[in-house]
Amino acid sequence: MKLLAALVLVLPSCLLNVQTASDNAPKRPPLATLTAHLEKTVYKDGEPIQVTLTLRAGPRGAYVSKWSKVSPNDQQNSSVGRHIGNVSGFDVSLLTLDGKNAESIGHGGVADRFAPAPPPSERFKDEFLFLKPGEEESWRGKVESTPVKPGKYQIVGVYMPDYDQVHELVGLPEARGLLIADIVGSAPIIITIE
User: Fold this and answer.
1) Helical H runs in the chain?
2) Which of 10, 61, 64, 142 is most buried by a 10 A CB count?
3) Structural domains of the chain in order of their starting residue, each with its CATH number
């Protein structure tokens, strides 16, 4: 009975120490960060909103969808899917201040595949590329003239390799824990539509 009483007294303090130790564990920096840039913050109703999204690899680097890679000739070559409606991995939204969608049509793209999937190692090699630490990938597009009431809104950008197959690749040894498999969002930018 004395042993049971001693365990009851010692066990909670052990659990507290475990919780404290995990709380003090160093947090890993994010694989990448995303920033949104606007040319201005006040727009007339119906005026297109030009947005540049910049994905920056963290201190360890990061693997991103090869289909999100933008090249200088992408604007001229519509067959490679680099127009705002087809850019894999990047999206931008016009939201109300409480976070609800203010747009009537979508315009981003998810880094996805449309054919049967080859083996995971082959998919990783063929569909992803490595951004070195601090290397950036920028994408530029417009939120087209969405009719909304005058007022304040927020612009939020995301990079999203958000398809089921990417989660199968995260644990591959060659990914080294550096494959972005979750949504990376930008901080919201408040704009005014007059």
Assistant:
1) 2-23, 120-127, 164-169
2) 64
3) 28-193 (2.60.40.10)
